[in-house]
Amino acid sequence: MGIVHHAKYLEYLEAGRIEYMHRRGVSYRDWTGRGIHLPVVEVAIRYRKSVRFDERVAVETAVTELGRATVKFEYRLQRDAVGGELVAEASTLLACVGDDLAPKRVPDDVAAILCSAETHPGPLDRA
Q: How many domains, in total, are found in the chain?
């Protein structure tokens, strides 16, 4: 059909979360090294328009809720063009767990980073 399969959007959301952390000066690997893992436990996606193969998509990512052991991200996916048309809206709920996969409180320093402003611009922002 020439359009992106609906499951591909999960990869877009993951890329948005990873970039969100990179723009705050941290990599997910930094946290996993400390025994902090954030698995996705819930996903909601509202598809608004189809995305075609080879079409670029911009992902806006924000933390909208921070619980004792959970983090909620919300996303807006737009065509990566001037006046980018909205193609999808989504949210993910992540649980904070340790190496043993048992729930654990989001550490204070992790919470502070998740709620902070960007400190490291992305490569496209530097151009």
A: 1
Q: Is residue 125 part of a domain?
A: no
pLDDT < 50: residue spans in the chain: 127
Tokens (6 digits) for 58: 């911009």
CB 14 within 8 A of CB 109: no
Q: What is the pTM of this model?
A: 0.91
Which token pair is 30?
A: 């930094």
Run of H or E including 113: helix 108-114
pLDDT at residue 64 in the model: 98
Laid out side by side, the sheet with 86-95 consists of: 40-47, 86-95, 70-79, 57-66
Q: What is the CATH number of the domain that holds 52?
A: 3.10.129.10
Within 8 A by CB and 6+ apart from 32, the residues are none
Q: Tokens 């992305």 — which residue?
A: 122
Tokens linked to 10? 């999960």
